[in-house]
Design goal:
The complex is a heterotrimer of chains A (330), B (391) and C (278). By secondary structure, chain A is α+β, with helices and mostly antiparallel strands. Chain A has 10 helices and 18 strands. Chain A folds into 2 domains: 4-232, P-loop containing nucleotide triphosphate hydrolases (Rossmann fold), CATH 3.40.50; 257-324, OB fold (Dihydrolipoamide Acetyltransferase, E2P). Chain B has helices at 7-20, 67-73, 85-94, 104-112, 173-176, 195-205, 219-232, 243-252, 262-268, 300-310, 313-323, 341-344, 378-389, and strands at residues 43-49, 75-81, 99-102, 116-117, 141-142, 145-146, 149-155, 157-161, 186-189, 236-240, 257-260, 275-278, 284-294, 326-327, 356-358. In chain B, the strands form 3 sheets. In chain B, strands 1, 2, 3, 4, 7, 13, 14 and 15 form an 8-stranded mixed sheet that branches. Chain B has 391 residues and is α/β, with parallel strands linked by helices.
């Protein structure tokens, strides 16, 4: 039995259907990411699990019991907010103790648990700081500790890394994943960053227009997107369709080939290099195929030098890829 | 009317005077009266008056004795009104005014302060018609020098609501007696000068104190008056200084008896007789107002013309009737719109005024002529009143 | 042109700064100076000679100690009543009412400020008349009677007058409160009451103190409402009003009492950050 069972969940704001018939089973101990552009309904689903929004129809079960209409304070879930939502008038340790204090955990026990949680997020020694005296990353950790100290069945994370700079975000991604393995709590993680989703998740649910477009392991989502939207949102949409597909692949339909699977070779589909982007370890080419499609190609800079790749701009090239790299999306 | 509608203004003035306290300058006493003759010099006079004393048509277009004066003389008149004698003193000391209508409790302070000049009565033809018992009195004449021309007078009457106070009172005891049937519905005048009202009552009820003039109280007499006020306090619903507030309170029934002015009773009886107003057997305090000239005026000719104009029989009649008091000019009685006006206000009854004690400023030197004791000066009255009101 | 940006800024603000110094600091100084002068006891004219008599009079006469106490009781009561009404009111306006209706609600809160102060207080006066007033009519069927004029009437009248000054800063404070903070509290298991007292109130505390600065200082200085609703009851403002024309230095000395109380009050709330909320 899944830890969370969501059935036919629907929610409208005015005339806008934010969530439109979502079914989702989430297993105990898994790291599930809800991925999608803004307005796709992923955050609304999260907020309905937390209890901040009430669905129009459908149900949510946690550990087999219906929590659809329970107020937030009666649910065994905790949330890490995008803006951290720390209580500005309390110091760090009091923030972390808040949930335990509400549940009337004795003072000494409470302090001990809070200090452990603080150590877990590697902020020992910061217990008497006020939130305003912390950096963004530190606040993020406090918010994590404040939620985790309650040992909820599920931890909900609403774009928690969105406000951090790239370096810190990458570091936090690793830490979060480690932390999740360590505590063994189910994480439901909302993001619009596909890279983040691919890096951290056990499974990803890709959202668009209030529906789940695909629910799969990261590799499957990336390699075998179910439709054009998923193909485009996760990774680069190298789509070949219509006449170009028939001419190049000899098949009808829409196909995708991931950029790193394509090689610039001496023979194959011919085209012109329109743009060259030097990325350091790799170079990205934008190529107009003579057959009528536009493809992005990613090449490891294992052999070429930067000067060589720049000289390719405007040149005629040929592209080739393995047949098994072609994947039909619809 | 002596109304508190200028109260907010007074507050502003209070604030600014706190700032500008240092700006008023004292000057030497006027060296003597103007010799005359009064010339036809055009000029501007700033008039400081009780509300209703110098009407220029701005209150009521039909009530105007300033504009005719301006037309006849070529003098321009600016009128500024005030709410209490104390405010008048303050404004006058600040300077900038040429003539003032001062009650007896303001005039002496201004005379001794050097703010006023003696008046040459020969230059004011209408003076001859003034009632004799208003001439050469202590509040308008000092050291044999006259400081102005009388305008009008009134008594502070005992007013009671008909039907609520039975029988109709004839004695002030109803506002002073701790067992008064009107307990909790009494009003009293909210000014230090009201201490004199207590003294008037003591003159009649405690002759052993030997009070002969309610404005000349030695320490013992003064303490007795204050004790009487303290005894009165539980009876009092409100102290009044605001005329309209008083009228509203009487109409609502929260006040049924207390000291008042005839004009207030007249307003209350406008539609039907609701209150009575008597001068009780003990006598009463009262006011007698005098038009006076600033020692610093630069428009002396216009000032003299104003003094003469304002006591012309018909002007005096209009002003007395508009304000509701007894006129000072004996010929005014024939010219009032209401032919009973002078009778109503007892203008011509000499006896009526014999036990009306006009407001005066108490001084250390007893005003009743005693030299063996010092009297309590007005500044101490004010202090005592302020303390008493905030006990 | 001045090259130094600091000097330029200084020249820009010099006029308002001069205004501040002369009008505010200057008037306080004038007040203080006046309070150590004498008067001519007969003519009431100020004599510029040093004396401490005014302060001796103020501090040795028990009446003025009592009136200070009464004034404090009124100012504190008005502040508490305003806070008790304004906090739930502002909470409703800022967090519960729909955002579209908020401007309307603010306008409604402000309506008392549209009418003249005197009109409102005279309206209260007619309500407080002991026998014929509206309050008496309202209460008498329940076996009570109108409190009549006095301290209670003054407290009610002033609470009514100053309520908007309490509601507005608290509303502003509560509106600034992020939704997520309230969600976080509920998420951590706190019921609405706990969230209100444990999170909303402490975070908006500086705004509440800011409001209290208005209600407290406005009540401390009022004398007109007291005259109209107070019956024989008086406050410090009335002492000043009664004395300013006859004994200006004494009035100045009395007027310093609320100034000192306000300085103490502002000093004691400075740490809460309330002054940033004004």
């Amino acid at each position: 039995m899944a830890l969370i069972e969501i059935r036919n969940l629907t929610k409208s704001f005015g005339s806008v259907k934010a969530v439109d018939g979502v079914d989702l089973d989430i297993n105990a101990g898994e790291f599930l990411t809800l991925l999608g552009p803004s307005g796709s309904g992923k955050t609304t689903v999260l907020r309905m699990i937390a209890g901040f929004e009430t669905p129009d129809s459908g149900s949510i079960k946690l550990n087999g019991s219906d929590i659809t209409y329970l107020p937030p304070y009666e649910r065994d879930v905790n949330t890490v907010f995008q803006d951290y939502a720390l209580f500005p008038h309390m110091d760090v340790i009091t923030n972390i103790e808040y949930g335990l204090r509400v549940k009337k955990v004795p003072k000494e026990q409470r302090r001990e648990k809070a200090l452990n949680a603080l150590a877990q997020v590697r902020l020992s020694g910061y217990e008497n700081r006020k939130p305003s005296q912390l950096s963004g990353g530190q606040r993020q950790r406090v918010a994590l500790a404040r939620a985790l100290v309650n040992r909820p069945s599920v931890l909900l994370l609403d774009e928690p890394l969105g406000a951090l700079d790239l370096k810190l975000r990458q570091q936090m991604q690793i830490e979060l994943k480690e932390l999740q393995r360590e505590v063994g709590i189910t994480f439901i993680f909302v993001t619009h960053d596909q890279e983040e989703a691919l890096t951290m998740s056990d499974r990803i649910a890709v959202f668009d227009k209030g529906r789940i477009q695909q629910l799969d392991k990261p590799a499957t989502i990336y390699e075998k997107p179910k439709n054009e939207f998923v193909a485009g949102f996760v990774g680069v949409s190298n789509l070949i369709s219509g006449a170009a597909a028939e001419k190049l692949l000899g098949k009808k339909g829409t196909f995708t080939v991931r950029p790193e699977k394509i090689r610039i070779a001496s023979k194959g589909a011919s085209g012109t290099v329109r743009e060259v982007e030097y990325l350091g370890p790799a170079t990205r080419f934008l190529i107009d195929l003579d057959a009528g499609a536009q493809l992005v190609v990613l090449q490891q800079n294992a052999e070429q030098s930067a000067i060589d790749v720049e000289s390719l701009r405007g040149k005629k090239v040929a592209l080739s890829w393995d047949k098994e790299s072609e994947y039909q999306v619809s | 009317m002596r109304v508190g509608k200028h109260r907010k203004l007074a507050a502003l003035v209070a604030a600014s005077t706190l700032l500008l306290a240092g700006c008023s300058s004292s000057s030497d006493e006027g060296s003597g009266a103007y010799a005359g003759p009064v010339k036809d010099t055009p000029g501007t006079i700033n008039v400081l008056a009780w509300p209703g004393y110098a009407e220029d048509g701005s209150t009521d277009p039909n009530v105007d004795w300033v504009t005719p004066f301006e037309k006849a003389t070529g003098c321009t008149v600016n009128v500024k009104t005030y709410g209490t004698s104390d405010e008048a003193v303050q404004l006058m000391q600040g300077g900038g005014y040429d003539v003032i209508s001062a009650s007896g409790d303001a005039s002496l302070r201004l005379i001794y302060g050097g703010d006023l000049q003696p008046v040459n009565l020969d230059l004011i033809p209408n003076y001859v018609d003034i009632f004799d018992n208003l001439k050469d009195r202590p509040w308008n004449t000092v050291d044999g020098k006259n400081y102005g021309v009388p305008h009008g007078r009134g008594a502070n009457v005992l007013q009671y609501t008909i039907g609520k106070v039975n029988p109709a009172p004839t004695s002030w005891s109803i506002v002073w007696d701790p067992n008064s049937p009107a307990k909790g519905k009494v009003t009293a005048y909210d000014s230090a000068i009201y201490i004199a009202d207590a003294a008037v009552y003591l003159m009649a009820t405690k002759p052993e104190l030997g009070i002969t003039d309610p404005y000349a109280l030695d320490q013992t007499q003064f303490d007795a008056a204050m004790a009487l006020l303290a005894q009165q306090k539980p009876l009092v619903a409100e102290y009044w200084a605001d005329y309209t507030k008083y009228i509203g309170a009487v109409q609502s029934g929260s006040i049924t008896v207390g000291t008042s002015w005839q004009v207030i009773a007249n307003v209350l009886n406008g539609e039907k007789a609701t209150v009575g107003a008597v001068k009780p057997v003990e006598g009463a305090t009262g006011w007698s107002d005098t038009w006076m000239i600033s020692s610093k005026t630069e428009a002396i000719d216009c000032a003299y013309k104003w003094l003469n104009h304002i006591i012309t029989p018909d002007v005096n009649a209009q002003a007395a009737e508009w304000f509701g008091e007894a006129p000072a000019n004996s010929k005014a009685c024939a010219l009032t719109a209401n032919k009973d006006h002078c009778k109503l206000y007892h203008a011509e009854e000499t006896d009526y005024w014999s036990n009306v004690y006009y407001w005066k400023t108490p001084t250390e030197e007893c005003l009743d002529g005693r030299t063996d004791v010092k009297c309590v000066p007005y500044a101490e009255w004010v202090k005592a009143w302020s303390s008493f009101r905030n006990q | 042109m001045q090259r130094n940006p600091k000097a330029r800024a200084l020249s820009l603000i010099s006029l308002p700064l001069a205004w501040l110094l002369i009008i505010y600091i200057g008037s306080l100084f004038a007040l203080f100076i006046t309070s150590i002068w004498k008067i001519d006891t007969f003519t009431s004219k100020v004599i510029r000679e040093f004396t401490l008599q005014n302060f001796i009079d103020v501090f040795t006469d028990r009446a003025y100690f009592n009136v200070t106490l009464r004034t404090l009781v009124v100012a504190i009561s008005v502040t508490l009543i305003c806070a008790l009404i304004a906090i739930p009111m502002a909470f409703f306006m800022a967090r519960i009412a729909r955002p579209k209706s908020r401007p309307v609600l603010i306008a409604l809160v402000l309506t008392p400020l549209w009418a003249s102060y005197l009109v409102k207080i005279y309206a209260w006066r007619t309500m407080f008349y002991p026998d014929t007033g509206f309050l008496n009519w309202l209460i008498s069927p329940l076996g009570g009677s109108s409190p009549g004029f006095g301290m209670i009437a003054v407290i009610i009248g002033l609470s009514y007058l100053w309520l908007p000054y309490m509601v507005l800063p608290i509303y502003a404070g509560m509106e600034k409160l992020p939704n997520s903070v309230l969600d976080a509290s509920a998420d951590l298991g706190a019921k609405p009451g706990r969230t209100f007292f444990g999170v909303v109130l402490p975070i908006t505390w500086p705004a509440i103190i800011a409001g209290s600065i208005f209600t407290f200082s406005l009540s401390m200085g009022d004398y007109i409402t007291v005259q109209i609703l107070g019956g024989t009851f008086q406050m410090l403002g009335n002492v000043v009003y009664q004395n300013f024309s006859l004994n200006l230095p004494f009035a100045a000395a009395v007027a310093l009492i609320p100034v000192i109380i306000m300085i103490i009050y502002l000093g004691s709330v400075r740490k809460t950050g309330a002054l940033d909320n004004l």
